[in-house]
Design goal:
260 residues, mainly alpha, Arc Repressor Mutant, subunit A, Four Helix Bundle (Hemerythrin (Met), subunit A), two-stranded antiparallel sheet, 4 strands, globular
C-alpha cells in the first residue's frame, strides 16, 4: 500500500515526502531524464504508488528532484509511453492499472549501448516506411487531419526551444493510426519510449545550438512526410520516411559520439 503524504520533512538534509514518495535531488548524471524515469518507475513497480494514485505535480517533482520543467515533462512522456502512467488533461498524471500495461515491450534499461539504440532504429526503418505508404494510400480524413496537426505541434514546440519528445511521439502515433491496421499501433507500444530514444541517450554534452539544429532538420523531414501522405503520394511518403529514419539513425550516432 502506498505511503500517504504527511507533509514535508523538516529535518535538515532529509528529502521531502510528497504524494507518498521520496525523491532526493538528482546528482548530475549524463542524462537527468533517464534517471528520473528510472526512479519514478521504481516507485511504481515497488508498489509505493498504487494504480490510480496521482503523481506529484510538475512543480513538486522539479523541487524534489532538482531538475527543470523540461526534464519532468520528458520523464512523464516516457512513463506514459511505457504504460506506467496515464495523463488527464488539466488534472494530472496517474499510475496506470497493471492489467492495461503492455506485457512485451522494449524498456529503456534494455538499451545498454548506442549499438542497441541503432538496431532499434533499423527495426523502425523497416516498419515505419511501410506505415507511411499505407497511410498515404488509405487517406482517411480524420487520420490525415491528425497527422497534419501533429506536424504543426511539433514545429511549434521546436520553434519554442522545447525538446519536443511528446510531439514527436504523437506524429508517429498519428501515422501508425492512419494505416487503418490495428497492429501498427500495437507495434508502437512494443517499442515503448524507444520510439523516440533521444532522451535516453547521453546527449547533454551536446551544445544547445547543435540540438536546435538537429530538431529543425527533423521538423523539415516531418513536414515532407506529412505533405506526401496528405497528397496521397505513397511512393513519396515511403521515401520521405525512409530518408527521415536513416538520417535520424546517423544523427543519433553523431550526437552520442562524445559519450562513447
Amino acid at each position: 500500500m502506498a505511503r500517504r503524504n504527511t507533509g514535508p520533512m523538516t529535518r535538515k538534509g532529509q528529502p521531502e515526502l510528497i504524494h507518498g514518495i521520496e525523491l532526493a535531488p538528482l546528482a548530475p548524471p549524463a542524462n537527468l531524464t533517464t534517471e528520473l524515469v528510472r526512479r519514478l518507475s521504481s516507485e511504481i513497480r515497488a508498489g509505493r504508488l498504487n494504480p490510480g494514485d496521482r503523481l506529484p505535480t510538475e512543480q513538486a517533482l522539479m523541487r524534489q528532484a532538482g531538475v527543470s520543467r523540461t526534464v519532468v515533462r520528458e520523464a512523464v512522456s516516457a512513463l506514459r509511453a511505457e504504460g506506467l502512467i496515464i495523463t488527464r488533461q488539466g488534472v494530472g498524471a496517474f499510475v496506470a492499472d497493471p492489467a492495461g500495461r503492455g506485457q512485451v515491450r522494449i524498456a529503456p534499461d534494455e538499451m545498454r549501448s548506442l549499438g542497441d539504440v541503432l538496431q532499434v532504429m533499423e527495426l523502425r526503418l523497416a516498419i515505419e516506411t511501410e506505415a507511411a505508404g499505407l497511410a498515404a494510400e488509405r487517406r482517411e480524413g480524420g487520420a490525415l487531419e491528425r497527422i497534419e496537426n501533429a506536424a504543426r505541434r511539433f514545429a511549434a514546440a521546436v520553434d519554442q526551444g522545447e525538446n519536443a519528445v511528446e510531439q514527436d511521439l504523437e506524429f508517429h502515433r498519428a501515422i501508425f493510426a492512419a494505416t487503418g491496421n490495428s497492429f501498427f499501433p500495437r507495434f508502437m507500444e512494443f517499442l515503448g519510449p524507444m520510439l523516440i530514444p533521444r532522451h535516453t541517450l547521453r546527449t547533454q554534452v551536446v551544445e544547445e545550438e547543435r540540438r536546435a539544429s538537429y530538431l529543425r532538420m527533423v521538423r523539415e523531414e516531418h513536414d515532407r512526410i506529412a505533405a506526401a501522405i496528405i497528397a496521397g503520394q505513397a511512393l513519396a511518403a515511403r521515401s520521405a520516411m525512409r530518408r527521415h529514419l536513416a538520417a535520424s539513425r546517423e544523427r543519433y550516432a553523431q550526437l552520442a559520439a562524445p559519450a562513447q
